[in-house]
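Retro notes - structure team

What went well: the batch runner handled both jobs without manual restarts.
What didn't: labels got mixed up in the shared folder, which is why I'm recording both outputs here explicitly, each with its sequence directly above its tokens.

Job 1
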Amino acid sequence: MGQPLIADENAVRWITLDRPEIRNALYVEDLTRVTEAVAGIGDSIRAIVLTGSGERAFSSGMHISTFTDAAPGDGRAIISRVRDCVGAIRRAPVPTVAMINGYCIGAAFEMALACDLRVAHPYVRFGLPEVRLGIPSVVDAALLHHYVGLSKAKEIVLTGELFPVSDFAAQGLINRTVEPDQLRAATLELLGSVTACTREVIAAQKDLFETWLNHSLQHSIDTSVDVFADIFRLPVTSAAIAQYQRARR
């Protein structure tokens, strides 16, 4: 038990936060390991799954010592490491899935928000408790209102309280809600769908989501046209079209 475990299985990279005795709380060095594991997937990996060890937590976020042991001037360095880690997850060129097996709090919630898809069980609790420490929720907490609406996002962030899965499932944040013993099976089933497409088109589509989130409508449309043209001319795309046509005969 210690730094995140990295395992590749059937073209999927599994990243497991591995400190169950402290609800998989994270240290700064864990962020570096996750960042490197995501950025260094290579061409053989088709998807990434993040989860936590044990049955109590996905992760309780940054360990409190990250803040209590830091000097007042260390804030930028700490949050920059969080930003880089969560950003690597969001921008990964392959589908990313958070398999959420328990408490999902703080920076870990931001990791889950940065993933493309989320699978959870009904007893999971989510929260962004940073305001209770006197610090703001930042980085990919900026995505929260896209999923739950501005009013609910403000309640989550400004109260720092924990919220049940039921507060999120109907709003689309959670893609699958299953019993704890079905988490892995549901995750694998979801992976089967999102890894059936070419790696090139998934990477391009994910880049487009970033464009759509960050730019105007017209810029997004114009960029989409360019990306479509670039992907359409690839040999792998011609092969995928031919395969799809054969399958429908």
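Job 2
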Amino acid sequence: MPPSQASPPFSRKFVRGLLEAVAIIVVAVLISTALRAWVMRSFYIPSGSMEQTLQVDDRVLVNQLAPRFDPADRGDIIVFDDPDDWLSAGQVSSYRPNPVLEFLGLAPSDAGQQLIKRVIGKGGDTVECCDDEGRLLVNGEPITETYLEPGMAPSQMEFSVTVPDGHYWVMGDNRSNSADSRFHQDSQPFVPAENVVGTVFLLNWPLSRFTWVSTPDEVYAQVPEPEGITGS
């Protein structure tokens, strides 16, 4: 029989186990960082501009691959970088990210520079307010926005715009409390496609409101493509 081998001393086993644990943690952090950088990120809702769809302090997950492979469409809720000082200096400076949540990927460090709204019109679309029944029109077709609170006017401000190619016209679901595209027509009312961080696909906190966030395709189903443009 081969001679018995002595077990490695406790200190060596401890160091080996510690190194393995550190390696696992490092790999986990690298994977988490890659996911946050390229695939998805978590954002919290700081204001009531998207109520009742999204409420203050909700957390949502954003698909960051969508802008690269599947550009935002009408009805999508998007997170985007401030296109032209939509946020005041006070709003930006008031954002205080939680370092623990940042490290865990539950809050982005640059969220103070970003907004969340719903896409109403994409490049080439004409968006108007409003028809005789108070509905928005997209390319001349009235839409019934099922995501608005019952009784809420789609807009109390009249407007008629044509969205430039590669841009979006966005509005908050809480139309009476959303400083969206309507309020920046003297500067830059349209969100450039390159400013889009991603598309919201999941409301993940609080758990009582956990739900998938889908695009309300039926709202825009009858909207024709803008003149001279075919396909989606």
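One thing worth noting from job 2: Confidence is low (pLDDT under 50) at residues 28-34.
We'll revisit the folder naming next retro.
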